[in-house]
Design brief:
alpha+beta; Creatine Amidinohydrolase; 4 helices; globular
Length: 266
C-alpha cells in the first residue's frame, strides 16, 4: 500500500532481532500472495481472492493490515488492468483470461508489518502486458540493490528510475512512472516517513544505515504518468486507460547487503 512523508536524518532502523520478526510477518504476506495467484482464474471474483488472502493470513496467526485501514474494506488491494493501486475487491469484479492483476497485501504479526505486491496475468498475457510487469519488477530490483549503508533515500529513488530506463532500452518501448505515488518506511506501523519516490536526483534525503527498512514499490504504465481516484475514494486508475503494474517488497539494509523481508515460497 502507498502513502507517507517527512524528513529525518536517517531512515528508521531495526535491530537484527526486529528484522527477523519483520521477516516472519513478511513471510505470511508472501504465502498469501502465492495463494491469491493460485486462485486467480477466469470466473473468480476479486472478493474471492480477498477471502483467500485473509484466510491465509489469519491461519498464520497474523492480522490483515489493510482491512479497516483508514476505512479500507479489504485484506488486499486488487488492481486489474488500468487500475494502478488501491483497488477494492468486490463480488462484481470477475477475472477474465488475459487480465493483468496487481495484488498488494499486508499482514501484522507480533506487532510488526509486512507489505508486498506483485503483478501477474490471468492465463497468458499479451507481450506488452508481460513486459510491463517484467519492467516494473526490474525497477524494483534496481531499487533493492541500492539499499546499502551510507546511501541516501533518493539514491534508491534514482536507482528505481534508472531501472525503468534500462527496461525501456531492453524492451524497446516507453513506460510511464506513475506520478505522486511511491514507497515508504515501515515497522510497527505500515506507513512511516520518509516517503520514497520512484524517480528523482540522487544524493538527497535521510541516510540509510544498517537496519533501515523501506517498502520499495514502483508502479509503471504502458502510457501516461497521470492518474485519478475513482468515486470510491480509493481506486487509482490511469488517466488514459492504459494498463499498469505494481511490484513491492519490504527490504532491510544489512552489513551483508539488502535483505528482502517479504520473501514468497517457491
Amino acid at each position: 500500500m502507498v502513502f507517507g512523508r517527512k524528513n529525518k536524518k536517517v531512515v528508521p532502523f531495526r535491530t537484527a532481532g526486529e528484522l527477523d520478526a519483520m521477516a516472519a510477518a513478511g513471510a505470511v504476506v508472501g504465502r498469501a500472495l502465492v495463494a491469491v495467484r493460485a486462485a486467480a482464474k477466469p470466473g473468480v471474483s476479486t472478493l474471492e481472492l480477498d477471502e483467500v488472502a485473509e484466510q491465509t493470513i489469519r491461519d498464520a496467526g497474523a492480522v490483515p493490515s489493510f482491512k479497516g485501514y483508514h476505512g479500507f474494506p479489504g485484506s488486499i488491494c486488487s488492481s486489474v488492468n488500468d487500475r494502478v493501486v488501491h483497488g477494492i475487491p468486490t463480488a462484481e469484479e470477475i477475472l477474465s483470461a488475459g487480465d493483468l492483476v496487481s495484488i498488494d497485501c499486508g499482514a501484522i504479526l507480533d506487532g510488526w508489518h509486512g507489505d508486498s505486491a506483485w503483478t501477474f496475468g490471468v492465463g497468458d498475457l499479451i507481450e506488452a502486458d508481460r513486459l510491463l510487469s517484467e519492467a516494473t519488477k526490474l525497477s524494483m530490483e534496481a531499487g533493492i540493490e541500492a539499499m546499502l549503508p551510507g546511501n541516501r533515500l533518493t539514491d534508491v529513488s534514482h536507482a528505481i528510475e534508472l531501472g525503468t530506463r534500462a527496461a525501456e532500452k531492453l524492451h524497446d518501448r516507453a513506460y510511464g512512472i506513475v506520478d505522486g505515488y511511491g514507497g515508504h518506511a515501515i515497522g510497527r506501523e505500515m506507513h512511516m516517513d520518509p516517503f520514497l519516490a520512484n524517480e528523482g536526483a540522487p544524493g538527497k534525503g535521510p541516510r540509510l544505515v544498517v537496519g533501515s527498512v523501506l517498502a520499495i514499490e514502483p508502479m509503471l504504465t504502458l502510457g501516461t504518468t497521470q492518474t485519478k481516484v475513482l468515486e470510491d475514494d480509493w481506486t487509482v486508475v490511469t488517466l488514459d486507460g492504459s494498463r499498469a503494474a505494481h511490484w513491492e517488497h519490504t527490504v532491510a539494509v544489512t552489513e551483508d547487503g539488502p535483505r528482502i523481508l517479504t520473501l514468497r515460497p517457491e
